[in-house]
Amino acid sequence: MIIDLSSAWTPTQAEFDLFARISGDDNPIHVDPAFSARTAFGRTVSHGMLIYTKLWGMLTAAHPEITQVSQTMMFPNPCYTGEQVELTVSGVCPGTLTVRALRAEDGAELLVGETEVA
């Protein structure tokens, strides 16, 4: 089966905060705007796995029968609140799917990776 999915998402601080509570990853770079303002990022940034969760959710909403075998990911640039993100999943199932998240404004890669699915 050919997979070719895309969606737009604009992350919010509330999503960062909720993901921190659920995952236990409450690093201040994700949840503390005052702390984050003093970093090189200048503001809070998304958890990388929150971005992947959005991609995986998009895939399983369209194809609930899919199961994941493995995944590889890189996060070349930060993902900020309020900036639209273009999410894409493509490839052939069963097999390896390409997953990507790009900042809509400038095309910066926020997540690039692959997931092997059955």
Primary descriptors:
118 residues, five-stranded antiparallel sheet, 30% helix, elongated, Thiol Ester Dehydrase, Chain A, alpha+beta
Quick recap of the structure?
This protein is of the alpha+beta class. It has helices spanning 13-23, 28-31, 33-37, 48-62, and strands at 2-9, 68-74, 85-92, 95-103, 109-117. The protein is elongated, with a radius of gyration of 15 Å.
What percent of residues are in strands?
25-35%
Strand elements, count: 5
CATH topology: Thiol Ester Dehydrase, Chain A
State the end-to-end CA separation: 11 Å
Specify the overall morphology. elongated
Rounded mean pLDDT is: 97
Rg over alpha carbons: 15 Å
Overall CATH class: Alpha Beta
Query: From N to C, what is the helix and strand string?
Result: EHHHHEEEE
Number of helices, where a helix is a run of at least 4 consecutive DSSP H or I residues = 4
Low-confidence stretches: none
Structural class: alpha+beta
**Main sheet, how many strands, which sense, barrel?**
5 strands, antiparallel
- How many domains would you count in the coordinates? 1
**Helical percentage:** 25-40%
Description:
This protein has 118 residues and is α+β, with helices and mostly antiparallel strands. It has a single domain, classed as Roll (Thiol Ester Dehydrase, Chain A). Helix content is 30%, strand content 35%. It has four helices and five strands; from the N terminus they run E-H-H-H-H-E-E-E-E. Strands 1-3-4-5-2 form a five-stranded antiparallel beta sheet, with helices on one face. The model has no long low-confidence stretch (mean pLDDT 97).
